[in-house]
User: What shape does this take?
Amino acid sequence: MSDALFLHGMLADGRVWRSVTAHLPELKCRTMDLPGHGGAVAWNGGDYQSQAFEMAQSLCDAPLHLVGHSFGASVALRLAVERPDLMRSLTLVDPVFFYAAKQADPALFDQYAQRAGPVMQAIEKKDQLHAAELFLDDWGVEGGWAMMPPPARAAIADRMPLIGVTAASLIEDTGRIWPRLRDVTCPVLIVSGGKSEPVMPGIVQGLEAQIENCTSVVFEDAGHMIPVTHGPQLAAQITALTT
Assistant: This one.
């Protein structure tokens, strides 16, 4: 049985993968909570993506199948370029590596940056609750904020500063992922949602242009939270890649 490691996105935790891993009996699935999420250690105040990368690398003692969603996909990409020897396959689910869109379609990236502006401004003003609502309107499950009880809203709002500290790694590529993407030789699959944030096709286009052994699939009726809304379908795609 092959090992697989799953990395979740911001404001979530490893439980987001439950409806995916339940349909992957042929893989030995492990999840990891990102810094400041779930049961993980807190953010150490340094480069957030680097801390997450080090944590993920510490769980990899042999080649495995790596799956990342959203920000977790950027950590997966970082691991793939730093340690290609550990990669049996790489699945990126709605990856928010905005630097790729900036390279592939600058106009599309600029439109995204304008839409993201109010979220970042609310974070800077420490209006975390408003920032969380705006952020989840774009990146959460449709209608999720309205259905969320106040304690859950408060818990997400408390983590919104982490959205601010991760921006540079996603927009400026401070981890130097982009220039090393051609070092990734394992099979790569990108799964995106047709109803996700409009910048996503630019990200996918940029990554496909840089990664040699790469294919992509669009779930036309899905938004950003594919592991939650389309778990069995995502599992089927992972199965096809890993067997």
